[in-house]
Design goal:
heterodimer; A: alpha/beta; Peroxisomal Thiolase, Chain A, domain 1; nine-stranded mixed sheet; three-stranded mixed sheet; 12 helices; 34% helix; B: mainly beta; OB fold (Dihydrolipoamide Acetyltransferase, E2P)
Chain lengths: 346, 129
């Protein structure tokens, strides 16, 4: 069987941040209690001239620059997001021209709430493994929306992650992938609606936790592995508390999940969330280490992946524009500027 | 914002493409069928360096309609590391923090939006490293 895996990765996080205190002050909420609950002190916010396309291009260019290969060898681009700037006009077409790939490429935009990016990863793995393409690029990019004063407003952030998949120069070999899907109405946005709605606490147990647990257990059952077989584990990060809780429920230690928690610094980046967590691990992992990743998308479903890190990884770890670079470059903004940057003033 | 114009200029804006003259050897921006120095049409596409330094800069507060969404903004002349000078926005910064000689790199951003229903024009801008 052909080997397939990750050959490069790239990340992008916008520079602007708004704190939980600043948002809580506007709505008369208790910031200390919110921070204890969410364990997210600040979230990232797009600049005035940024959107899902610009973030996707930046993360994709970082992945291609790190790889140092010819982007014309890329045979597919899939961009997962729930905040594409066009309802009709694919983000993937603009990313393709901006790399630039060749014109002979499969491309599409995907939507499955916060797991649309990992759905793209699965499509690329399948296409590469079946020899239909040499390389595929899966991107999760989101400028998540939240109704002002809604609990989501404290965490709905912006960011992008790109994963380049191929069969040559693999830095993390795919051992297996496993998905679960069910019709679960925990979070939704109707056509034409500006903001998403959600089922409050219903988003937890029957939605995030059940699907993350089922997919992760299914993945480990398929490979006959246990939590102790993994050095790192990544879950979707709507806040910092949820991935820590689901890790504990499944028998993983806090140390196994801690490195992936990008959410602790920038909030919930939706389609990019679990992929940014994976990228952060790839920046630090060593040859022979094993990574388990499980995304979650409302609606609902989870994609789980098992990776074995190869000895090629160290060649791709000295790159200046890594997640730490983007976490550290910040400009704090107040709620007034936030309303302008988010386009809340109509 | 006309679709044909956006389509025609997309590669130049996305990839920062200029030309390199096969006759006189000089490089220039923007894309053109003719060398602005010697007039020959024996030219090839050339992708500009992605990093450089600020030569001059100013603050634009009275912006055109399609640029008004991000006014006030900083505009600069950047000397790229390949010697070519280009004009571009310097973003994610405060005007008072800019300095001549500051190192910058190209980033991909929205240049203009045609209202809420029209096209979005993308291209390169600059940010401090």
């Amino acid at each position: 069987m052909n080997k397939v895996g990750i050959v490069s990765y790239g990340s992008y996080i916008p520079k602007y941040r708004i704190s939980v205190e600043e948002i809580a002050h506007i709505w008369g909420e208790d910031a200390t209690e919110l921070k204890n609950q969410l364990q997210v002190p600040k979230k990232s916010v797009l600049g005035l001239d940024e959107d899902v396309v610009t973030m996707a291009v930046e993360s994709a260019r970082n992945a291609v620059n790190l790889w140092d290969g010819d982007p014309k060898l890329i045979g597919a681009i899939y961009v997962g997001s729930e905040s594409h700037p066009y309802a009709v006009k694919p983000t993937a077409t603009i990313v393709s021209e901006a790399l630039p790939t060749g014109k002979e490429i499969m491309a599409a935009d995907l939507e499955f709430a916060c797991k649309a990016g990992t759905a793209g990863m699965q499509m690329c793995f399948g296409l590469v493994k079946s020899d239909m393409i040499n390389y595929g690029l899966a991107i999760g990019s989101d400028d998540s929306q939240a109704k002002p004063s809604d609990p989501l407003e404290y965490t709905a952030a912006a960011g992008s992650a790109a994963i380049l998949i191929g069969r040559e120069g693999i830095i993390a070999e795919l051992e297996g992938t496993y998905s679960v899907t069910s019709d679960t109405p925990d979070f939704w946005r109707r056509e034409g609606a500006t903001y998403p709605s959600h089922g409050q606490r219903f988003t937890g147990k029957p939605a995030y936790f059940q699907h993350s647990i089922d997919a992760t257990k299914g993945m480990m059952n398929q490979l006959q592995t246990n939590p102790s077989d993994y050095d790192y584990v990544v879950f979707h990060q709507p806040n910092t508390k949820f991935p820590l809780s689901v890790a504990k429920m499944l028998g993983f230690t806090k140390e196994q999940v801690e490195l992936s928690l990008v959410c602790r610094h920038i909030g919930n980046t939706y389609s990019a969330s679990s992929m940014l967590g994976l990228n952060r691990i790839l920046e630090k992992a060593s040859s022979g280490e094993r990574i388990l990743m499980t995304s979650y998308g409302s609606g609902a479903g989870s994609d789980s992946f098992s990776f074995m890190v190869t000895d090629k990884i160290e060649e791709l770890q000295a790159y200046p524009f890594d997640i730490e670079y983007y976490i550290k470059r910040t400009i704090d903004i107040n709620y007034g500027l936030y309303t302008r940057y988010k386009g809340l003033l109509k | 914002m006309e679709p044909p114009k956006i389509w025609r200029e997309k590669r130049q804006r996305y990839l920062a493409l200029g030309i390199s003259c096969k006759k006189c050897g000089k490089r220039s921006f923007p894309l053109s069928e003719y060398c602005p120095y010697c007039g020959t049409n024996d030219v090839e596409e050339y992708r500009l360096a992605e990093t450089g330094k600020i030569l001059y800069f100013t603050n634009v507060s009275m912006a055109s309609n399609e640029m008004a969404f991000n006014a006030p903004y900083c505009l600069g002349i950047i000397e790229l590391n390949d010697g070519i000078k280009v004009t571009g926005q310097i973003i994610d910064c405060d005007y008072k923090d800019l300095k001549n000689g500051m190192e910058v790199k190209m980033v991909f951003r929205i240049l203009a939006r045609d209202g809420h229903e029209g096209l979005i024009k993308y291209g390169f801008k600059f940010t401090s490293i």
